């Protein structure tokens, strides 16, 4: 069965979409990570926004993330339909028509960018507009289907939120904002390649040139280790900036120690052993990678609270 046939079959049972279908169209799980990292970037910035302005900024950044998700689902409906992990998404499942997904994505894009400009400043709005464009056009329409470096370069889209939050408060980019961006950017490849190790057949069936498909699992394991080692100095570097402190550095040392150990275990894994235990190590590494990022950014908030109380910082 061709991808197009599978997609047409999946959308043949369309029904009247409900509110929950539109929520799923915005990729709420991805949006939650965007909101959290953007909020951290905004709160740790040296300029404090009024609570109403801060709420508005995070709301419109979230809408921008949702717009990206809707545009991605519109464009990727054909390959989503043939991948087990994505077949139940609203468009391939026939819950929301592709045209509706496109309309929602474009409408939310315009609203989020304009309103963020009005609520904060044009620099933050421009960064949000570029992020939406990068995810929907550069990553989804070009990189994802054309190169195994798709997730490496495309990871920039998910790395911009804390920078946007920082710029919304300050109106400019700084070393701290760049390093928060770099932390997510360098974290993205090992995070997604771990997923690709135990979801390779999905990407192969959909014709997506993930590293596991084009270079094999052994090469992917080596890439995970290399990018994890490159991530360490970035994580430690953020901890010694103005938004870091002793607690942040301690958290970075512990988290990156565990991350390196996990990546080393993946690198040493024999494929036959990995298949025999249903990729247990790879799945554990993938789950820990989510906790890794959350705890890094949570540490920035705790450090901020300690500084406010006169107990933290360098």
Task: Tell me what you see in this structure.
The protein has 314 residues and is mainly α. It folds into two domains: 21-171, UbiA prenyltransferase (Tetracycline Repressor, domain 2); 174-314. 78% of the residues lie in helices and 0% in strands. The chain has 17 helices and no strands. It has helices at residues 3-10, 19-25, 28-44, 51-75, 77-80, 98-119, 122-146, 150-154, 156-159, 161-170, 175-198, 200-206, 211-214, 216-239, 246-268, 271-276, 280-308. The longest helix is centred in the last third of the chain and has 29 residues, at 280-308.
What's the layout of helices and strands?
Blueprint lengths: L2 H8 L8 H7 L2 H17 L6 H25 L1 H4 L17 H22 L2 H25 L3 H5 L1 H4 L1 H10 L4 H24 L1 H7 L4 H4 L1 H24 L6 H23 L2 H6 L3 H29 L6
Helix pairs in contact: 3-4, 3-10, 3-17, 4-6, 4-7, 4-10, 6-7, 7-10, 10-11, 11-14, 11-17, 14-15, 15-17
Helix content: over 70%
Strand content: under 5%
Summarize model confidence as the mean pLDDT: 93
N/C terminus separation: 61 Å
Summarize the helix and strand pattern as letters: HHHHHHHHHHHHHHHHH
Largest sheet: none
Q: Strand tally, please?
A: 0
How would you sum up the global shape? flat
Number of domains as seen in the coordinates: 2
